[in-house]
Amino acid sequence: MTFFAKLHPLIVHFPVALLTSGVVFEIYGSFKKDEVVETAGRFNTRLGFWCLFPVLIVGFLGMLSLENTEKFKDFLSGHLRFAFLTTGTFIIAMVFSRYFRSPVGRGIYFLVLVAGLVCVLGTGYYGGELVHRFGVSTAQ
Prior knowledge:
By secondary structure, this protein is an all-alpha fold. The protein is 82% helix and 0% strand. It has one domain. The model has no long low-confidence stretch (mean pLDDT 94).
């Protein structure tokens, strides 16, 4: 077991928490017209977005060190699929946030944020199954 395989489950919770709280606060603040909550959500969303990249790199390096992946390959595949969907979805959200500030662009931005949140939750589900059901990156 390499360093990266053990490190990934430890650091992934930070961007997950930032993205989840960011999306919820940003949408809630927008609907309630609470600029402070919306700004806090926007900050969390952007910080979580930038924190995705080191976590992806560490996760990929950790995955390269895994052995005997046949018994959990479906879960690993789902985890990877959702991880890349999460990243792509939030890239689209950042582009819409930056360059499409019209009411339609803002609506699409919020829809993409919700899709990104679903992707984060899917990634977390498969990652949790890898760790807790199959003992990936643990001493089991």
